[in-house]
Amino acid sequence: MNHLLIAPVVLPAIVAPFIIMVLRHHLSLQRIFSLASTVVLLAISLVLATQATDGTVQVYELGNWPAPFGIVLVLDRLSALMLLLTSGLALTVVLYSIGSGWDARGRHFHALLQFQLMGILGAFLTGDAFNLFVFFEVLLIASYGLMIHGGGTKRLQAGVQYVVYNLLGSTLFLFALGTIYSVTGTLNMADLAVRVAELSPDDTALLRVGAIMLLLVFAIKAAVLPLHFWLPASYANAPLPVAALFAIMTKVGAYGILRMYTLVFGPDVTATAGLVGDWLLPAAMLTLAVGAIGVLGSREIGRLVAFGAIASMGTLLIAVALFTPQATAAALYYTVHSTLAAALMFLVADLVMERRGGAIIAQRPMAQTGLIASLFFVGAIAMAGMPPLSGFVGKLLVMDAAREHDLIWWIWAVILVGSLVTIIGLARAGSEIFWKSHDASHIDDPEPELAGHDEPAEMEQGDAPTPALPFIACFVLLAGLVLLTIFSGPMMDYTEATAAQLFDPNLYIDAVLKRVEP
Amino acid sequence: MEILFASAVGILTAAGIYLILRKRTFPVILGLSLLTYGVNLFLFATGRLMVNAPPVLNKYAEVPYTDPLPQALVLTAIVISFGMTAVVVMIALGAYLSAKDDHIDMVEDTKRAGDDA
Fold this sequence. Notes:
Oligomer: heterodimer
Order of helices and strands of chain B: HHHH
CATH class of chain B: Mainly Alpha
Helix content of chain B: 55-70%
Radius of gyration of chain A: 22 Å
Number of strands of chain A: 2
Strand order of the largest sheet of chain A: 1-2
Helix content of chain A: over 70%
Distance between the termini of chain A: 23 Å
Radius of gyration of chain B: 21 Å
Shape of chain A: globular
Largest sheet of chain A: 2 strands, antiparallel
Strand content of chain B: under 5%
Mean pLDDT of chain B: 85
Low-confidence stretches of chain B: 112-117
Order of helices and strands of chain A: HHEEHHHHHHHHHHHHHHHHHH
Strand content of chain A: under 5%
Number of strands of chain B: 0
Shape of chain B: elongated
Structural class of chain B: mainly alpha
CATH topology of chain B: Helix Hairpins
Structural class of chain A: mainly alpha
């Protein structure tokens, strides 16, 4: 067994309590340990990703218990890709929050961040449905703490909504798992796949209920309409660097859908055939439409980016809902892109918020306005899916993958019109914030109104943060987007191989259950 | 016994759903707790209901046994839901104390200022 496989879970699980118990009063040491842990995680993910490229499925049996009885961690191409994406994103978020001083505005920021990473990485690695629930809870508990980091009335109120909504999601998750367990008698994903395929067609009513409840759970996490209501308020009111990290959390939902509905309730399983894609596709299109309209209607920059994230989830889930290898490959490419783009936009939004408040109105120019405006411009291009950045490539791939589908004109229309509306919304916000601020005649409100948010300007004067680090974090994300565009060929080769692996679940099942090749 | 058990789960869940639709945080949190009780019982029942049977195999005699796995799952679920309830109570208390208002929805600032006047 390759013990490196469990390192992404164990390392943050050790570092986080260490930070809480030993380094509680030493912010600089906390920063060093958190940063070091994240760098090591990135290195581990890189090693695991190179191991996964050859298409082997590695299995780690916890406590050496064989598969259907013990919990297993499974590393395939999809897990490796998500691990790499998460740890890369985490590194930029840690850099940004150190540079901007966000981690000093409340306690235990770094410990919570490490716990959050443990939950996310564990959720991507686990091969057991109940263990997936446990890792979901780990990442959610940490995210509750991060969400209200720094305090403030609005943030706490949004935090209550966020927690309540996710607790409901967790309860539904348990109901779904209970239903599935009562039918199949197992919760190991590979074993589930075998049992579900063997089930007699007359006896699947309960299983279908379970499958749909599970879909609802992942849809809540992925912010699919009409279950998206938690996202705008929580992301806009959370500390925005944390929202940048949360950009990966919606992808956990998309990952859950991809994993469970290719492996267990796959497209050729008769019991659940046509159950998922038919529901998910219209919901995903609605998500995209509402996200785009939300971008157009936002009056506050955090909310603007949050709706942009919803719109990108819509595009992503359209590709997922097609459930063909080509569409899945496109979805995976778009996953990487939309995570980086949403994170970049959240960080840029935080740069704006720190300097002049979040309202999208003309005000006096802020410090470094040229640099931030260029970052916003590039980020908006990426988020809206304009050439030359990877969003364009991603959307093109998604649309190309929909070519064979019956609803092709609907899909194309929603994606294209959605992109247009997103561009208009982002352009309007950008020109209000950056351009009109230079024209004194537009400024009717000289006092920046920081409605409900803690006054960042005053706090910043106390301890002057390293001013370069936040921009470095933004440029790292930007570099990621540019690299994703330049190397879209090799990247597509990898995601196509990943999709092929997903749509041939026997490889996964054989590896986990140690079945001998017939 | 099955009917009694099933209706208990059903009533707990129904009451929970009713309470989470209320507009103040306290009933919502109560509703969440009822829902978690309901789901815990439900999980417990997924291994089929048996009376007077241990959750271990006996290799010396043919005695009935129950499925131990749901019991382990319920233990995990109880611990998690207990912790979560504590977290949501603390956050809701913080929100209530700082906003002087325990409505679950976020009223716009302008509207609230108008209400006070």
